[in-house]
Each structure stands twice: as structure tokens, then as C-alpha cells.
User: What shape does this take?
Amino acid sequence: MPKDYPKAILEAEQLSSLEDILVEEMCQSQERGIHFTGVHFRNGMMLVDCGSQGSAEWIIKSVPQLKSWKGPELVVLRGDDIPKPTNITVFFPRSQEMEPEKILRLVEVQNSNLNIGAWRILNSRKEGKGTVLTIGIDPQTEKTLKAGGCCLNFRFGLIPVSGLKSKEVSVDVEMPSTSREPEVQGEGADSSLGQAVGSAGAPMAAEIPSAALAAGRSCQLPVRAFSDSEREEHLKESEEEQEEMEEGT
Assistant: This one.
């Protein structure tokens, strides 16, 4: 990973180049028994599963000496020293016809200071007229999202981000009466927003206002009260997805 991570990250092309350089380095090595069980490009860094202690030591020794590497200065970390990525879950309204990559491209255009290149799509599914994405993000993006009130600009409105722990701010929320629909602004007002789910323990739609205003900024968002059965169903669904991602990792 870059020495200045997360200020500096490795883009997809750099990660691929680094993998090829390491393979070339192995071809020229006098050591024997160097082997690995996997390589992963995640959140602007490369994760390598070493097959033995000797293989791990070879990586630690070789990476700082890669003569053909043209990118930022690299460091090798092990085990618990490796930065843990943060996963967020976002419901993108009116995106049922868009591929996840196109959704992220629009997010990149409409939001500043986000390292989209370091994001990793962990799960994608269609939900009503929109798409729910679970995404692994880098620390700098996490900081930027929290500073922006845990919201993203998308299409012609603001949408909430679930999965970020931040200090909640108490706000007064006017719940809709049974005689009319609540007035909201922006395309985030799509009724299917109420079906957005977050990671286990993340605030559900009915709790969005306090999370959205965590940084003290006004964020007009639709609110829909869930019934107990709906809440349990979405929470169970979210927990199952989280377990599947952890098993896959």
C-alpha cells in the first residue's frame, strides 16, 4: 500500500501493474517455495494472502526494492496493522436501468473529494425503481461523507448513506398524517426510498433525519415509518448480506 495511504491510493491500473512486477520479481528470485493463496485489490491497496512465513518475509523484503515500480512509495503491513475498510449501503432511486459502474460514475461527477477509484462494490441488487449498493470505501471517503452529513448528491436530490458511525444531532421531524403524503424535495423523494436497508446495526429509513444531520447540515429527506414486521424483515435481510460478505472475505 502507499506510504501516505489514505491520502495516496493505488488506482486499478497501478494495482495490476504492481501484481505483474511482483511476478517478474519472483521469476528472478533465487529463493524457492514462494507461494501465495490469493491477491485482492481493495480500497486503493493490494492485499496478498501468503502461503507461508517465508513468502510473507519475501514480500516484505522485495516490495521496497522494486526497481521498475513507477508509482508512490510503498510499505508492507501485516495482520492487524492493515487498515480496515468501511462498508456503506446506499439506495439509489430511479436507477433500475443503470449498471452499478454507471451509478458510481454519476456519484463521482456530482460529489467532490471522493476516491471513487478506491471503492469496491460488494453487493448490488435492484429494489423497486432503484438499486441498493453495498460498497467498501477508503478512510478519506469516510471522512468526507461524515463531514457532508452522511449524504450523497445523486441525480436531482440528496440521498442518505447507511453504515457510518457518527454523532447524531437531535432534530424535530414532522411525520406525515394519514390524509396526505409528506412534501419532500429532490428525486430522493421516490417512495421506494423507504425500502433502503443498511448494514447490521445501521439506522433504518425512519431514523434517517438524525443520521443525515450528524454534521449539523440541513438535509431534507423523506421519512417513512416502518411497521415492526417490515423493520425485522429488512434488518434480517441486511444481516444475511453482511454475513455473506464476511464469509466471502
